[in-house]
Design a protein that fits this description.
By secondary structure, this protein is an alpha/beta fold. Helices cover about 45% and strands about 15% of the residues. It has a domain of about 110 residues: Magnesium chelatase subunit I, C-Terminal domain (Helicase, Ruva Protein, domain 3, Orthogonal Bundle), CATH 1.10.8.80. The strands form five sheets. A five-stranded parallel β-sheet has the order 3-6-9-1-10.
């Protein structure tokens, strides 16, 4: 497909907006710039995010901070075992006076949907998000409702305290573009965090730095970045290697390849480039692919986890010699 490669002025505008978002979010996420950078990249790629880490490290804070920096609608869902699908998507209510049904939209009808502890909801409720996340629409009583764009789901879950939880099925995990870990802050960052939150909540002090229309335009701009055939082949080689590795019983899907390309484009755009490099793909291979993979029985018995296997695959897959110079020449020929 032929499309116009972004101009330098457009990339500079993108950098200004994304830098403003990152700077605002980092005021409440002390010492975790990598997590913030990856989150904003997923926003540009319009990909859903699964924040998975131990309690108390700032998963919900990160999601709420991102929502406050953008002038858009934000819906929040606290997942519990008794939550019903209609609590997410909405419900039709009969109005006797008008003799008609009125649709009451649920919290998924927002630009950014924050789902807290998604693994505490029943599989039936979790599955209600599948259509929303994949097609940005939901069907209620036979009628389809389109969700606002941009549409981003940021879900959190804890890898501990698994009693009374329902692990996300593979089909649902595959809908998330990336699984991100927040991690513990450094000692200096934690002291800074204590200073900032000693008397007030810094999230409440955040102000918007952009709006939904601008983010939508930047998403379209990001998708126009150039990816050389060699880079696309590299993505296919990585994804294909996960399907034949003896350490894995479930490899990455074709959807994973598409989302890895989109995430790599967003990463390149935030770096001020109009083309994707293999380095972008390598940087994002772990957060985009790891949560979609399942270890084989032999790998589990030998103590080999998915992350170790994926790192070995990335290290052993030949990297195309796509330099900046060759990318520029191919881009000029492209358009």
């Amino acid at each position: 497909m032929i499309h116009a490669i972004p101009q330098q002025a457009e990339l500079e505008k993108l950098a200004v907006v994304t830098d403003s978002i990152r700077a605002a979010v980092e005021t409440v996420m002390s010492g975790r710039p990598d997590a913030v950078h990856q989150t904003v990249a997923c926003l540009l790629a319009e990909g859903h995010i699964l924040l998975e880490d131990v309690p108390g490290v700032g998963k919900t804070t990160l999601a709420k901070a991102l929502g406050r920096t953008i002038d858009c609608t934000v819906g929040r869902i606290q997942f519990t075992p008794d939550l019903l699908p209609s609590d997410l998507t909405g419900v039709n209510i009969f109005r006797a006076a008008q003799h008609e049904f009125e649709f009451r939209p649920g919290p998924v009808f927002a630009n950014i949907v924050i789902g807290d502890e998604i693994n505490r909801a029943s599989p039936k409720t979790q599955s209600a998000l599948l259509e929303c996340m994949q097609e940005a629409q939901t069907t209620i009583d036979g009628k389809t409702y389109h969700l606002p764009r941009p549409f981003l789901v940021i879900a959190t879950q804890n890898p501990v305290e698994m009693e009374g939880t329902y692990p996300l099925p593979e089909a649902q995990r595959d809908r998330f573009m990336a699984r991100l870990a927040i991690g513990y802050p450094s000692e200096s960052a934690e002291i800074e965090m204590l200073d900032r939150q000693e008397v007030a909540d810094p999230v409440a002090a955040l102000t918007t730095v952009t709006d939904a229309a601008t983010v939508t335009a930047l998403i379209s701009l990001t998708r126009r970045l150039y990816a050389a055939p060699a880079v696309k082949q590299y993505i296919v080689d990585l994804v294909g290697a996960t399907r034949v590795d003896p350490g894995l019983r479930l490899g990455a899907s074709p959807r994973a390849a598409i989302q890895l390309l989109r995430a790599a484009k967003a990463w390149a755009a935030m770096d001020g480039r109009d083309h994707v490099l293999p380095d972008d793909v390598q940087t994002l291979a772990e957060p985009v692919l790891a949560h979609r993979l399942l270890p084989s029985t032999e790998a589990r018995l030998s103590g080999r986890d998915v992350m170790t296997t994926l790192k070995a695959i990335v290290a052993s897959t030949p990297v195309p010699a796509a330099t900046h110079a060759t990318a520029h020449s191919e881009r000029r020929a492209f358009g």
